[in-house]
Amino acid sequence: MGGGHEAGPRRSQRLRTRVQLTPPSPRTVQTPPMPSSLPRVVRLLLLPLMLASAGCATRADRLGPGVAVDLPRFMGQWHVIANIPYFAERGKVATSDVYALRPDGRIDNFYVFRRGFDQPEQRWEGVSEVVPGSQGGHWKVQFIWPLKADLLVLDIDPDYRWALLGEPKRRYAWIFSRDPDMDAAQYENLRARFARFGYEPERILRVPQFPQQAGQPGFQ
After folding, report:
1. Which three-class secondary structure string do you get for the chain?
2. 183 within some domain
3. Angle at 186 between CA 183 and CA 190, to 5 degrees
4. The domain containing residue 180 runs over which residues?
5. The CATH number of the domain where 110 resides is what?
6. Has residue 25 been placed in a domain?
7. Most exposed: 2, 12, 91, 127, by fewest CB within 10 Å?
């Protein structure tokens, strides 16, 4: 019996030693830490959504046509009384746009101008297409293939004597008139109307239609 008491502790010690020396089971593997690259992956996944949201906001802020247009009445010659100066029209005088409906529904577009009052008249020929569903107020204008530009009719005189034109991003604007001259009061009134469409009216400057207008205040 006494021997039994001595064997018990030694056996327990050997068991404890084997337990301590036994390697951990392959199944007891710790979960690896979350990869450090995960935040970047999340950003990459969210980027298209962020861009889409930004695009939606931009599209929501884009300008659309302001009125329905009777296209046959809109055809003919319009003198460019004023515009926001930009590279294609800068430095030109006595400018006008002439429109003519085609049998296929498209519009012949002629831009008529002089590079100076002592210079010969020139013209560029283009073609425009009315955007479906725009009631004639949104055109796609093309002077150089394959480039197309948006043109919006924002407001128009009931008798089609003047028209205000713009484009979706508000970079360009025009005041058109059937007559080459316009009195100062009417011009200022029409220019101020652009504020309703999110423009800064002071960016719009008159285009000289007559030699005596060249170099005058408010003219390009």
Report:
1. CHHHHHHHHHHHHHHHHHHHHCCCCCCCCCCCCCCCCHHHHHHHHHHHHHHHHHHHHHHHHCCCCCCCCCHHHHCEEEEEEEECCCCCCCCCEEEEEEEEECCCCCEEEEEEEECCCCCCCEEEEEEEEECCCCCCCEEEEECCCCCCEEEEEEEECCCCCEEEEECCCCCCEEEEECCCCCCHHHHHHHHHHHHHHCCCHHHCEECCCCHHHCCCCCEC
2. yes
3. 135
4. 71-213
5. 2.40.128.20
6. no
7. 2
CA distance 34 to 199: 51
Residue type present at position 55: G
Classify residue 35: in a domain, yes or no: no
Least confident window among 59-63, 145-149, 192-196: 59-63
Predicted pLDDT of residue 60: 54
Q: What b/e sequence results for 110-119 when a residue is b if at least 16 CB atoms lie within 10 Å of its CB, and e otherwise?
A: ebbbeeeeee
The answer to whether 80 and 61 are in contact (CB under 8 A) is no
State the total domains in the chain: 1
- Tens digit of pLDDT for each residue in 133-185? 999 999 999 999 999 999 999 999 999 999 999 999 999 999 999 999 999 99
